[in-house]
Every structure is written in structure tokens, then in C-alpha cells.
Design a protein that fits this description.
Elements lengths: L1 E3 L1 H5 L6 H18 L11 E3 L9 H10 L7 H8 L4 E5 L5 E2 L11 E5 L4 H10 L24 E2 L9 E2 L9 E2 L9 E2 L1 E2 L5 E7 L4 E4 L7 H7 L1 H5 L15 H8 L11 E3 L19 E3 L9 H4 L6 E3 L8 H11 L4 E2 L53 E2 L6 E3 L5 E4 L2 E5 L13 E6 L4
Parallel strand pairs: 1-2, 1-3, 3-5, 7-10, 13-14, 14-15, 15-16
Antiparallel strand pairs: 4-5, 6-7, 8-9, 11-12, 17-18, 19-20, 20-21
């Protein structure tokens, strides 16, 4: 299953994600066939995952992808419904990361790739349990499932005989400092083939084995475990949502022959709906309009895995505690009508009580966003490092400052020039704002 960020989608131009995913699958299958490997992959599903920032390194997103947190909470359901064995997140920036299986029977088939690169072939190789070049075992990673399950690099000899390297290789074996000046001037030619000593690969002058028996033979490992890999397969499973509100059923039925996995937008305004039980089973739902109904219990909305925005205007009897949780999960800008419960501001300073860090300020006081009195030219209203101002996604932790957000460090206030979580004033991502002493 190939998942795409919004930036990756925008980078495809006229190509659809379905077409791009199929190109990847065809390329990978051609490599398997050329390598003498009896494995064939199919595209189970494609989906755009909204709210994934592309400029964050892949390591940061591989973990929530695996554990289904943040914008990836709906991934297990997508994987289950479409019978997907592997999940590849395709980004516009920062690809090339994957998990190894903890054992051949305990797969962790998640990876991150980049558009315009076929790096998912290498990363899926890691998902299968392959290592890098022969003998190059990274201490940060698990060793290959079989010690010979690695790539192979035929080291370069000269510009006329540059050698080659197979799919899983990169590192010291793929380059050569021929004159000893500390600069690598010879590099192997990368081949779209897995190591297999039974095959011949051209090294620039002649053909040499594409691997070493018992040392670098990825084809042997993949073929030897292909039935184990087949047991990773999940059969597609689509359940029928159990709605208990006739008006909600009527609204959904008005969309015709739309299956549960196709609902991304649902509008049921002024429909007399009293319960949204079961709506979380519309697991692809992004935008929901429930304005002017008779809702009280909205807990199911908290379990809708991909929900991004909802309109609950006019639902006067709504459960306000659940609404607070929904606002916290989606963000206030994405919950229209959230003021149906009112905003508590006991001291009347314009800052809601749940955000007010200085309750009881005198009437007429000038306060900052935290509800504290702004002390002239001081910095009492500015967050101090590392009290960041912004989240990477709704419901996630506060991790950084955006452009224009101020922050105090060591008695000096700075303003962020762009997305940053470096120490204020330490690099070009910050500009001096003022000294908190008043100068």
C-alpha cells in the first residue's frame, strides 16, 4: 500500500497516485525477475495522508507511521481493509528509511520513500530482512535475517573498470580513493538487481558474478523465505458500519452507491440526527458537516481516524467535555461552531480559562496570549525556550516555532524566521527581537 503526502501529490503533476504507485510496483517486479527472485508485488491501495509535513526527516515519520499516531492513526484500518502487507509512505522530500523484521515471522513492513526515486525497492528489501553490502553490518540496525542476505559491491578498479553494486549496497565498498588524497574519485555503477552469484554483471570490461555464495546472495534468501513472506498476507476485510440513527442512515444513503472506504466528505445538515454511532467506521472521512442536528454524544467523532474538520454549529445539547477533546484533537480552527458550549473567561481578559496562565488579572489589564500582564518592554508574554508554540499536526506534541513566533532564551527575545526548533539566536532561523530587560 502506497501512502502519499500532499506535497508528494502536488509534485506528480498530471500523474495520479495510482499511476505512480503502479510504476513503482512494475519497476520493483522487473528487478525481482531480473534477479531470479520469485516474488511479485501488487498495489493493494493508494491514499493521500493529509497533515504530514514533508520537510521533517523520514526517521521522525517512520515511527508514527508504524505505531499509527498523529496523521497515521487510520493506517491500520486501511491496511486491514485492503489486505496490504507493506506500507510505503511516499514524500516529496526525505525518503530512504525502513524497518527490519524482528524475525522472519514478525514483520514490521513500514518504509518511507521519495517521489522521482525508486528507493522503495531498497527499503522493501530491508522490510524483507536484507542488509547492506557484504560484511557491512550497521551496529544501529539488526543484522540480515540470513548473514548472506546482503547486497554485493564489485569494487572499482579504474575509470574503465568501475565495477558495480546491487540494490542493497551503498557505503565504502561502492567508491575508491585511487590516489590516496582522501577524495573518492571512482564510484561503482548501481544496478537494479539483487545480489545473486549465479548471475553475471558487467563491471566495465567483463562480466563478474553478481554476488558471493554464502556471503552476498539476496536472491537465495528471498527465494528461501518467500513462503514465509506469503504468510504475512492479510485478506481484505470490509465491515458494514452499524448505525443506530435512522436519519444518519438516510443521509448516508442519499450518496448512492458509495462504499465505506470512499467517503471523504459527508454533509448531513439539519437532518434531525441524534446519534453518530458507527460514523467512525467511515474510516476515510475527512470533512463532516453535522450543523443544526440534535447531537449530544459525539464520542464516535474522536475515533474517526482521518477526520480533519467538522461543523457542529447549532447542536445546543452537545456533550461539552467531548467537544473539548475534539477541539484539542483537531484544533479550534477545524471545529466550526465549537462555541456552542461557550468559552469560560472568569477574569474577562479575553483569554479562555483553560489557556489562562495568570487567572484573576485586574479588569483593563493588557495581557498576552497566555493571559499574563504584558510588562511594558519586557517579555512576560513570550514563551521561554523550550516552551514551543506550534504542533506538527493536530493532536501531536508542541515541537517548534513557526515564522513570526517569538521566544525568549537567556534574557533575549527572538523571532522565528521559519519552521525551527533550534535554540533561539543560535542560527539563521532566528532574528533578534528585543532584550527582555527593556533595552
Amino acid at each position: 500500500m502506497y501512502l502519499y503526502t500532499e506535497d508528494a501529490l502536488n509534485g506528480l503533476g498530471l500523474q495520479t497516485i495510482e499511476e505512480e504507485a503502479q510504476v513503482r510496483a512494475d519497476f520493483n517486479n522487473d528487478a525481482f525477475e531480473a534477479s531470479g527472485i520469485y516474488i511479485n508485488i501488487k498495489v493493494a491501495h493508494t491514499e493521500v495522508i493529509e497533515g504530514v509535513p514533508d520537510f521533517i526527516p523520514s526517521d521522525t515519520q517512520l515511527v508514527p507511521l508504524r505505531w499509527a499516531t498523529g496523521p497515521f492513526v487510520g493506517v491500520p484500518r486501511l491496511k486491514e481493509v485492503h489486505g496490504a502487507d507493506f506500507v510505503v509512505l511516499v514524500k516529496a522530500l526525505y525518503g530512504g528509511r525502513a524497518y527490519f523484521p524482528t524475525s522472519i515471522n514478525e514483520p514490521v513492513p513500514y518504509s518511507v520513500a521519495q517521489i522521482n526515486f525508486h528507493d522503495d525497492l531498497h527499503e522493501i528489501g530491508h522490510n524483507f530482512g536484507l542488509g547492506h553490502c557484504q560484511g557491512e553490518f550497521n551496529p544501529r540496525l539488526q543484522p540480515p535475517v540470513e548473514l548472506y542476505g546482503t547486497g554485493y559491491a564489485h569494487v572499482p578498479v579504474s575509470a574503465l573498470q568501475p565495477g558495480f553494486d546491487t540494490v542493497m549496497c551503498y557505503g565504502d565498498l561502492t567508491k575508491l580513493d585511487s590516489d590516496g588524497d582522501g577524495v573518492n574519485d571512482l564510484f561503482t555503477v548501481g544496478l537494479d538487481i539483487f545480489s545473486n552469484p549465479s548471475l553475471g554483471c558487467f563491471d566495465g570490461e567483463t562480466y563478474a558474478p553478481c554476488g558471493i555464495s554464502g556471503v552476498a546472495d539476496a536472491a537465495r534468501m528471498l527465494n528461501g523465505h518467500r513462503f514465509d513472506y506469503a504468510n504475512w498476507t492479510h485478506e481484505p476485510f470490509i465491515s458494514s458500519p452499524d448505525f443506530n440513527d435512522a436519519q444518519l442512515i438516510s443521509c448516508i444513503d442519499s450518496y448512492g452507491d458509495v462504499t465505506v472506504d470512499q467517503f471523504k466528505t459527508l454533509s448531513c445538515r439539519t437532518a434531525g440526527i441524534g446519534s453518530v454511532e458507527g460514523i467512525e467506521e467511515l474510516y476515510s472521512l475527512r470533512t463532516l458537516d453535522l450543523a443544526h442536528n440534535n447531537l449530544t454524544d459525539i464520542a464516535p467523532l474522536l475515533d474517526a481516524p482521518l477526520l480533519l474538520s467538522v461543523d457542529i454549529t447549532g447542536n445546543e445539547n452537545i456533550n461539552c467535555q467531548q467537544l473539548d477533546l475534539l477541539v484539542s484533537q483537531l484544533g479550534a480552527d477545524n471545529v466550526i461552531g465549537e462555541d456552542v458550549c461557550g468559552i469560560a473567561d472568569e477574569d474577562g481578559d479575553g483569554v479562555a480559562d483553560d489557556l489562562d496562565q495568570c487567572p484573576g488579572t485586574p479588569i483593563g489589564s493588557v495581557v498576552g496570549a497566555n493571559g499574563c500582564i504584558v510588562d511594558g518592554s519586557g517579555c512576560g508574554d513570550i514563551n521561554a525556550h523550550p516552551d514551543w508554540t506550534t504542533k506538527d499536526w493536530a493532536g501531536g506534541p508542541v515541537t517548534h516555532n513557526e515564522a513570526g513566533d517569538p521566544m525568549v532564551f537567556d534574557g533575549v527575545a527572538y523571532t522565528a524566521n521559519w519552521y525551527t526548533n533550534s535554540v533561539p539566536g543560535s542560527d539563521a532561523s532566528w532574528s533578534f527581537l528585543k532584550n527582555c530587560s527593556g533595552s
